[in-house]
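name: query_chain
kind: protein
chains: 1
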Amino acid sequence: MRRSPIALVLAAAVLAAPVIAQPGPGGAGHMEMLHGFGTPAAVKAGTYAVEPAHTQVTFSVSHMGISPFAGTFSGASGTMALDPANLAATKLSVTIPIASVQTTSSKLSEELVSADWLDAARFPTASFTATKVTPLGPEAASIEGTLTLHGVSKPVTIMARFFGAAQNPMSKKDSIGFLARAQIKRSDFGVAKYVPLVSDETVLVINAAFEKQ
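structure:
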């Protein structure tokens, strides 16, 4: 298999989607996931910074029990100190601006930053800080940490997998990427408008890109 423990990691780092999935031979219950270049063994120890242009956090909720509905946050910043030989010592901290939220409805995007929802004026950022990284195989990991959203801090576990490692041909920097997923109850963070018509359960999917400093 490609990928070694390093995959574990930090991916999750941040608090998007794409587990780009396609039906496979197994039918509807079978998913095939995209993979990038390189292997976990290619990842170099050091300090990495979030690459904001290619890092996304997507949230998805059930809209009135009829269909899923999603929006995306962007503009993340943060750092990850990673040593493939000592993953337990990994340090990861990521911040995302709430005002970056976008949906397919401009009216809803405006509402989401208002005091009725995420209240970006009072709570301009959301953040995640990892406290524990546990390998779950050659290219996956469980990342425990603290999510701060809407002024409330709660423990959250993010499931992550290694996506790719290569030198970015544009920036010429060693880069790594991860896919990650977490599920929260938004009411736990004081964002309870329209529950249960708009589901309390909220899925976060993260596309995380990092560049070596």
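note: Residues 68 and 207 are 19 Å apart (CA to CA).
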